[in-house]
Predict the 3D structure of the following.
Amino acid sequence: MDELIRTIVEPLVEFPEDIKVSREENERGLTYILSVNKEDMGKIIGKKGRIASAIRTIVHAAGRAHQQDVQLTIQE
């Protein structure tokens, strides 16, 4: 799942070396935490949050394909 998130995010940012993906397990399932360079934050969120929403939808769907509840959090 880390690689999926990186594959989606890398073409969107100017500083791909600053992409960090960490994983946290909780009672609801898995939560992936995405961190990017501060200058790339707007590109990841997009207008009205559309890009962030699309990335979250893809990650959630990929998790469902593996019978897992997966969420994505974008950290500033």
The mean pLDDT is 94. The beta strands are 20-26, 29-35, 70-75. The radius of gyration is 12 Å. The chain has one domain: 2-75.
